[in-house]
Amino acid sequence: MLLAAQAVALGLGGYVTLAVMAAVFLVLLTTKLSIDIVFAAGIVALVCTGTISVDTALSGFSAPVVATVGALFFVTSGLESSGVLRYVLVRFLGRPRSLRRALVSLSVNVSVLSAFMSNTLVVSMFTPLVKAWARRIGAAPSKLLIPLSYAACMGGICLLIGTPANLVISEFYASATGSQLNVFTPLVPGVCVVVFGTLTMVLLNGLLPSRKTAEDRLPPQARSYEFKVRSGSHLVGMTLGEAGVPTDDGRIRLTGILRFDGEMCASPTADDFMMGGDTLYYSGSERHAVAVARRYGFEIPDSLSSIVTAKVTPKMLTSLAIFLAMVFVSALTSVPLVTCALVAALLTIICRCCTVSVAKKAISWDLLMVFACSVVLGKAVDQTGVAEVIAQGLLGWCGSSPRLALLLMCLTASILTEFVSNTACGAVLAPIAMRIAADFGLSPMPFLVGLMVCCSASFMTPIGSPTHLIILVPGGYRFSDFLRLGVPLNCVSVAVAVFIVPCIFPFLPT
Length: 510
Hints:
By secondary structure, the protein is mainly α. The protein contains 23 helices and four strands. The longest helix has 24 residues, at 481-504. The two termini are 28 Å apart.
């Protein structure tokens, strides 16, 4: 084999890099250690063995992609705090008459949102909302929670800022060529994945599992709903009886009050007072409980908010305008994405779309560490010759066919991303994709964009994406449930990468 022949010429640094990569992936697969710690340990091992220099190890933290992601945390926290996400759900999901229509509505709306912001954020916010929405339209939540996660993964492909893997891959392209990818570079392939993926889910909706969680097995009368008394409410200081708040009217029953100071009042009566910050727990009819909460001005949680009419506020419009300006200025001008993101983050705070404390809490420091370490790991793969060896091995298999090389690379990415993060997958395979393109003497674009598509095509296992883990317990899923639609969706993604991407980004000689 050509791969084996080339591996003989690999230096000590290359073997160390391969060993570190294997160890990182093995630890991620077999332990529960945090991914940022594992990646950082891998980089330290490369430095200690002299495989890379300290300057190279630290260069990841100064990479534009890290600053971009950090700024995007501020911008997306503004969208969340201002209520843009809730508004989209309330206004656009509606009340479809069939499961197929529900799948289309959910997929379209979630894909659009995930193209612009973290799919983990979207899924974590939408999970309780979609559960309530599913029950309201008469469907099992498990029928819609997997599509929620799948749609978020598919939508993330559409824009450069939609998923960490896209940003990491674009960073390697920028480092190698000195040119920046446009924020809309993966748009057409991403839209194709969304369209064909949604069509697949609609046609094969019978494969969606119908699971019941412990909450689903409870009769409606036993389910509990919580509402908070607003601190500025006119009810503060009044007893339940004076305010006319029902404690038991046959349809709902007040089972307890959690006081603002943490004290629990069990079996409350009409003589109990209400204070600002108290949480009232009702059991019984959800619709009637929400109606009571609206009548008395209680704060309604997100899981029940789709019953409440969404209203456009100036803060929502401001937050949305800042975000769209960031995207389109970056796409239509020569201003780098990192500059646009930093300015948008500053405007989000200045315009009070969210507070500084909320924005700081939104920053995922472990994700920033993963980004920085991924960039460094990718440089090690390239500088030590590992990328060249693997590229030559793939070329030995596919001969003079770049499409076959693209297929082998996409299949590798599609399998690898099921077991490790798409960020790690992109970091390892991006330099290999660049090397394959260079060996063919072709533009790297079809290989890099194809890689963007397949790094996010992690549909077959619940550990393939953080979004799958978010919906795993709420949906009552089994490990095998993800294989049913996951295999067809992975095939759709690979097909788009191999057959559609080269039509948009041809195999042109450099």
